[in-house]
Design a protein that fits this description.
alpha+beta; two-stranded antiparallel sheet; 20 helices; disordered N terminus; AcylCoA_DH/ox_N_sf; short-chain 2-methyl fatty acyl-CoA dehydrogenase activity; transmembrane; ATP binding
Length: 653
């Protein structure tokens, strides 16, 4: 027990019995001599100035301004700002190394320092010379604290939906609205507030204002009670006709959203680095604890299960560190992959490091649940990292969007043919949307209940069929003018059925070709097929929808036309279909004959569909096998020709 109590006052920074060079989780691996020196400075500061007071700051909910000013003297207030106004001009990787070490001393305070640095960088990068001279020196020394104000009560993940507005009134903006969960609020001297111009929507109408506490109409809400991050205050900000000079605008009138996103990319790397520092410290403490804690006659570290868990924790820490530093390097170089890689770093590191800290707490058993030990505070503090700077669900959206769109955009920029293909796809989509809109012109009456819902669906189907019929009858009138034959109706509807079957076959072939390209890796070997496949997918979906409607309408009209023709031929009476049903004085033999004729016509039309299905399935299957074989061998053009010939062979047969 005494050994355990003694261990709580010591924070091990990668100091084990074995030499550091054999420790695979050593955070200095891969760093230059200069970066190792920066790391040592940050480690010593965290060990001496932050860790001994971490629990006290958490309990008293106290932001240590004196410690922050000491950090400013070292150069931690404007780490990646330019030197002309007091910045340290270090790289993003250097900043990640610093925040990782500071977080081992106190996650909450280090996280606020990362937000403050983000604000200082935004002013240093996008501000005027006057703004830089006014704010950056004080922020570099932590004399003036900064707060980033994007989130609102009604807009968190959907940042572009913010509704705090500003209208021009002379040489001032008049601001109305509110912001929520603002870190540092109440202690900060400058607030970077994202606002919307009046009568605008979306990202383009957003801009940024530098606001200060004490401005008329600027008020602070109560200090929020939080699960973690207790050493940094968080409040709601309210603006009621708050007048702000136009000279306080940061960047252009429509640049606010881009500025906010540029800042938050760095914020994601920084916050992931803070999670990493907590995870590294928790792992070190867990190893020390299990070396002295005994159960069943031997130290916990000798149990294979615990060794396996430590291996998993170490792997998560190392992979998190690698992805964070890689993202920081891309951020420094302003790579086109910056947004996606920063999102990956935050997603992977915050999730993995939380699991590491949680497992370390479990290894401490009941002691880990006590506030005498730091794991519970690490756990509470880094839990918020999965939410702040964009929730991890939003990180997944950013990564998925980049994976889906980047290949297409890169191809469009290189070859105008892909642009033409994309334009064709867009045109097909517009035609399809217009067609669907025509189907929905007639609105059904709202009803309630299961029976009413059935009636509503039935009415919608009838309306859709009515729109389809009107559309195809317009085509029939045009055909009748162009082909004035006695059997033009039958010819038109037979052509309609044939074209619909042919169109469906070709759409199926396109789908098979795309599936084959993916399965055989053709897209990986030849990226030009990506845009081609995308275009065919866009065309195939409306084609399938339209040809299904064509087939249904064409067959129903053929049944009616054949029935009329056969009836007239047998009985010499020119009766249209509707009159035939209404006449009740016809001979019963005519009625029986009509029933038989109707059945025959239906069998004939159904036979067309059956013939198509029976012929197309084996041919399409053969085409699929040939396509897979040819795709694997790289013979795309001959395989494509062969598949189209097979598809056309359905009708030749």
């Amino acid at each position: 027990m005494q050994a355990l109590r003694k261990g709580r006052s010591l924070l091990r920074f990668v100091q084990f019995v074995r030499p550091n060079h054999t420790y695979c989780v050593d955070p200095s691996i891969g760093l230059s001599a200069e970066q190792k020196e920066i790391q040592n400075v940050a480690r010593d500061f965290a060990k001496n100035e932050m860790y001994p007071h971490m629990a006290e700051w958490d309990q008293k909910e106290h932001l240590p301004r004196d410690v922050l000013e000491k950090a400013g003297e070292i150069g931690f207030g404007a780490i990646y700002c330019r030197e002309d106004h007091g910045g340290s001009a270090l790289s993003r990787v250097d900043a990640s190394i610093i925040f990782e070490q500071l977080a081992a001393g106190c996650v909450s305070t280090a996280a606020y320092m990362s937000i403050h640095n983000m604000c200082a960088w935004m002013i240093d990068t996008y501000g005027t010379d006057e703004q830089r001279e006014r704010y950056v020196p004080g922020m570099a020394a932590f004399k003036t604290l900064g707060s980033y104000c994007l989130t609102e009560p009604g807009s968190g993940s959907d940042a572009a939906a913010l509704i705090t507005t500003a209208r021009k009134d002379g040489d001032h903006y008049v601001v109305n609205g509110s912001k929520a969960f603002i870190s540092g609020s109440g202690d900060s001297g400058v607030y970077l507030v994202m606002l919307r111009q009046e009568k605008t929507s979306g990202p383009k109408g957003i801009f940024c204002l530098l606001m200060e506490d004490g401005m008329e109409g600027f008020s602070l809400g109560k200090k929020e009670k939080k699960l973690g991050w207790n050493s940094q205050p968080a409040r709601m900000l309210t603006f009621e006709d708050c007048r702000v000079p136009i000279s306080n605008r940061l960047g252009g009138e429509n640049e606010g959203f881009n500025i906010a996103m540029a800042g938050i990319n760095g914020g994601r790397v920084n916050i992931a680095s803070c999670s990493l520092g907590a995870a590294q410290s928790s792992l070190d403490l867990a190893v020390d604890h299990m070396a002295v804690r005994k159960q069943f006659g031997k130290p916990l570290i000798d149990f294979q299960w615990n060794q396996f868990k430590l291996a998993e924790m170490a792997t998560k820490i190392v992979t998190s560190r690698m992805i964070i530093r890689d993202a920081a390097e891309h951020l420094q170089q302003k790579s086109v992959h910056t947004a996606a890689l920063c999102a990956m770093a935050k997603l992977h590191a915050t999730d993995s490091c939380f699991e590491v800290v949680n497992q370390a707490l479990q290894m401490f058993g009941g002691y880990g649940f006590l506030k005498d030990y730091p794991m519970q505070q690490y756990l509470r503090d880094i839990r918020g990292h999965q939410i702040v700077e964009g929730s991890n669900e939003v990180m997944r959206m950013i990564i998925a969007r980049d994976d889906a769109m980047a290949p297409a955009l890169s191809k469009l920029s290189r070859d105008p043919r892909y642009l033409a293909a994309a334009a064709g796809s867009g045109l097909a989509a517009i035609v399809f949307m217009y067609y669907k809109k025509q189907q929905q012109k007639l609105r059904s009456v709202p009803t309630v209940g299961t029976f009413a819902k059935r009636e509503k669906d039935k009415k919608k189907d009838e309306q859709k069929a009515h729109v389809d019929a009107a559309f195809f009858r317009k085509l029939w009138r045009i055909f009748k003018v162009l082909v004035p034959t006695p059997f033009c109706s039958e010819v038109f509807y037979m052509l309609l059925v044939a074209v619909s079957l042919l169109g469906r076959t070709y759409a199926d072939v396109w789908m098979i070709m795309n599936t084959t390209r993916i399965e055989t890796g053709v897209i990986d070997r030849n990226p030009k097929y990506f845009m081609k496949s995308l275009t065919q997918y866009v065309f195939a979906m409306p084609i399938i929808s339209v040809v299904n409607a064509m087939l249904k309408f064409g067959l129903s009209e053929l049944k009616l036309r054949f029935r009329e023709r056969l009836t007239r031929h047998l009985y010499g009476q020119y009766l249209d279909g509707f009159t035939f049903y209404k006449m009740s004085n016809l001979d019963s033999r005519i009625a029986n004959a009509d029933q038989l004729l109707t059945q025959d016509v239906e069998k004939f039309c159904d036979g067309i569909v059956d013939l198509y299905s029976n012929l197309s399935k084996p041919i399409v299957d053969v085409a699929l096998y040939v396509a897979r074989l040819g795709g694997a061998l790289g013979f795309q053009a001959p395989v494509k020709l062969f598949m189209y010939l097979l598809a056309s062979g359905i009708f030749l047969t």
